[in-house]
Amino acid sequence: MKIQRTSYPSIALWFILAVMLANMVAYHNWTRSKPNERGVIKWDVISYYAYLPATFIYGDVKLGFLDDKSFNNDSKFWPYRLDNGNLLIQTSMGLSILYSPFFFAAHALAPLFKQAPDGYSSIYQLFLALSSLFYVMMGLLILKRLLLRYFTHAGTAITLLLVGLGTNLFFYTVHFGPMSHGYNFALITLFLALIIRWYEKPVMKTTILLGLVYGLIVLVRPSNIIAGTLLLLWGVTGWASFRERMGFLVKNYLHLVVMLLFFILPWIPQFLYWKAVTGSFVFNSYGPSGSSFYLGSPHIFDVLFSYRKGWYLYTPVMLVATAGLFVLKGEARKGRFGITLYLILQIYLLASWWSWWNGGSFGHRSFIDIYGIMAIPLAAMMDTALRQRRKVAVAAMALMAFLLYMNQFQTFQYNKGYIHHTGMTKKAYWLNFLAFRGDGSCWNMLSLPDAELARLGIYYDYYTGTDNTPLKEMEEDEGMALVREEIKGDKKLQRQIYRHSKRTGQTPGEVQEMVVERVYEYKIANQTPS
After folding, report:
1. Residue 273 contacts residue 61 (beta carbons within 8 Å)
2. Angle 182-91-183 (CA atoms, 0-180°, nearest 5)?
3. What number of CA atoms fall less than 13 Å from residue 382's CA on the CB side?
């Protein structure tokens, strides 16, 4: 039976779903646990999820029950203690809202399957994992319809396969799905589809949906407020069309008012929570941990190309997508300006975050949020390649197949520990590049960042292959002097120390001594921060 070209995108989606389900069953990460670490409710997910069990199981979103010594927390909650004595959930509640249908289903089914109805048994984690798969597949379905507006069925199918299986979206759906990125991938893709529909026909239903979806996008991850550039600039190709856009928005100002109201709607529970816990309706919940942006010193090259977490290194499909901005044609060309500005803002913000590597992850996970947008220039590249001479087209598709394979293989390596979550270096990367059996000596080639100093905008790395025995055998004054000389000789580090002194009012000497003490203590303990 001959397969119709029009079926290619649907076949691609079914294939992606089958591969993801097979891997989820094979790894069944919802049951895997280590001491004090659950299958998928761990790390950042602990905070994203905390609103649900705190409110609907333990009956107190302010977490007062944690002060009861009889309550065994065992990493169920990771709050911050504020100066007023209250406990704060650091992350906003957008993901808890998206998790909620699956949470309530798990809670209803827990007694039936003889699972503890505590919010943390395996059935809750299974349903969280399924929620990730659901939202990502919905995002891919919306993306399919979006791409078919501009591109061929073959180009659309290849693009879907590359986004679903050839990027770290796969890892953050199958292996660590409840993180925020797959959800925002789906929401931002839906947001763009609604924007296009709204400019074609600005009816109130679409206006309301735009406001709600945009509000949820920002509630899930506040820095994604920059997605609003798409609303402003989609379809703008120059100054003339920009002036027309401003006129259109002025003409439809009532729609903008309604959009703003529905943007605020999903934020109302968040405002009430902050008011109850902090005393203010609006609160920087990352402030207590010292997390911040350093907009004057972005690590742009590191974010894009470093061995630690370079986006284009670990997800090279997106380098192809970026190049696709130059080949956008026809109706798709109307998105070039908006996509380009959105991409630039995304790179700049991520490069300016104190942890520019974004913690432990496979690749640079925060870029996943914009994969639905980057799929448009990627599809343009695929269609352009398919229109070339047969040999050129075959070579291009072979390259894409290799990049997809590379992502799948490196996902395997990351799960095996051959790719470190924060400390990769050039030597460690190439030692185990596409190797089935990793060389354990790579663990002596890592460069681990000091997170405590990084929060201050000061970046110091500890090399796992360094022998600190001579330093440990010295007298303290002599050892401190040695570390001091090392830090004084690092011009880049000195600039960071100077910038921190300007921000805080301390003298450069005082900041330098703080850094010296921090580094010396870790080195003599032969420890490195994770």
Report:
1. yes
2. 15
3. 29
260 and 333, same domain (yes or no): yes
* The predicted structure's pLDDT at residue 273: 98
pTM of the predicted protein model: 0.96
Q: Pull the structure tokens for residue 112.
A: 């039936």
Q: Is 425 exposed, middle or buried (0-12, 13-18, 19+ CB in 10 A)?
A: buried
Q: Do 247 and 132 fall within a single domain? A: yes
**What are 91-144's pLDDT values in tens digits?**
999 999 999 999 999 999 999 999 999 999 999 999 999 999 999 999 999 999
> CA torsion angle for 407, 408, 414, 418 (degrees, to 10)?
-90
Shared domain check, 347 and 207: yes
The total of other beta-carbon atoms located within 10 Å of residue 73's CB is 13
In contact, 493 and 459? CB cutoff 8 Å: yes
Whole-angstrom CA distances from 242 to 133, 239, 341 are 38, 5, 14
What separation in angstroms does the CA of 78 have from each of 10, 46, 48, 195, 308? 42, 7, 10, 37, 27
Range of the domain at 209: 5-20+127-416
Could you tell me the two tokens for 140? 């891919």
Rounded to 5 degrees, φ, ψ at 406 are -60, -40
- Give the Cα-Cα-Cα angle 236, 238, 240 (nearest 5 degrees): 95
pLDDT digits (tens, 9 = 90+) for 290-315: 899 999 999 999 999 999 999 999 99
Contact 312, 351 (CB under 8 A): no
Tens digits of per-residue pLDDT, 452-480?
999 999 999 999 999 998 998 999 999 99
Rounded to a whole number of angstroms, the distance between the first and last alpha carbons of the chain is: 55
The pLDDT value given to residue 52: 98
Residue 494: both structure tokens together: 């000195």
State whether 352 and 428 are in the same domain. Answer: no
CA-wise closest residue to 383 among 445, 431, 438, 321: 321
Query: How large is the angle between the packed helices 204-220 and 181-200, nearest 10 degrees?
Result: 160
The reply to whether 439 and 463 lie within a common domain is no
Asked if 282 and 271 touch (Cβ cutoff 8 Å), the reply is: yes
Say if residues 135 and 98 touch (Cβ distance below 8 Å).
Answer: yes
Question: Which residues of the chain, if any, have pLDDT below 50?
Answer: 528-530
Does 195 share its domain with 218? yes
pLDDT at 38: 82
pLDDT at residue 174, rounded to an integer: 97
Q: What secondary structure letter does DSSP report for 3?
A: P
How much is the CA Rg of the chain, to the nearest whole Å?
25
Phi and psi at residue 193, to the nearest 5°: -60, -40
